[in-house]
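hey so i finaly got around to running the thing on Kinesin-like protein from Horornis vulcanius. pasting the sequence first so u can double check i didnt mess up the copy paste, my clipboard has been acting weird all day
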Amino acid sequence: PRPHPTVRVRPLTGTEARRGDQRVVHSLGDGAVHVSAARHDATFGFSAVFDAGASQEAVFEGSGMRQLVELAIDGFSCTVFAFGQTGSGKTYTLMGPLAQSDTQPASPALLGLMQRSFTCLLEQSRSRGSDLALSASYLEIYNEQIRDLLSPGPPCALPLRWSKTRGFYVENQLSVEFESLEAIVSLLLQGSQRRRTSAHALNRHSSRSHALLTIHVRSRAHHSPAWALQAGPCPSKQGTLCFVDLAGSERVKETGSSGELSVEANSINRSLLALGHCISLLAKPRGKRTHIPYRDSKLTRLLARSLGGSGITLMVACISPSSRCLSETLSTLHYASRARRVTTRP
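ok and heres what it spat out for the 3d tokens, dont ask me to read them lol
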């Protein structure tokens, strides 16, 4: 199968509307999105397009996220990643409003793909009895360092290793078992609060790191009934569901970043460039492919499995409809179009 790029167009913000920005992105229905502005007139096709009026539930149901949860339970390695310009709605799409915490939960209608997937996963888990063991790990990549968002104390850098059996993996990362929705949502919110964010001209809460929350779904081996003992125990299956909230691509001159912020921006842009490069090469026909440079960044190493063929990937491209964001919007749409051509063999 191929990754399913879906596109989400956020509403114009209050600031954009007051400034008189034009809406240059329109959904044409049937997975088509049209960009029309001076000297630009382009139509792109995707598996689904959600425009400004789409609810969080519509995005969950229409993106194929529910099927992804079921595939993870069946032992597949599944990845969802949200990408796009800073301030385009990636974190909101995945998690919902930023102001939520354990003491101040978000309204159920505003919850994002993550919480809806957890609910779906736990419902499936209950319907299968106690067969499933669930655990979570949560990392961020900040300035090319990997940090554990769940381990207590100040975040320290963890080494990234490679082995023949596991591929790239993070050494000493904490994995926490959970059995209830409250427990996994609490892990998500605790980890998110430890993530690096800063304010700049385009976004008050800009994510300065790439975050990867991975749910490990292990179906326990259980013995067949007595009459089928010759068949032996059923093998256990292990699937994963990984949510990747990529830091936004940004032009330093538009965000007004300087000093540490611009160092972060360069690090973010470098790793996004490495990811785009891997996707471009993977989009070529198999016979024409050269070496895929996963080792160019920590992000591409950690996503090597999801991108490179043994997993199933859902991509959510988030874009702003504003005329001011036109060049970033076009580059996000081109990026997602390239990703459509990647084929995987899960």
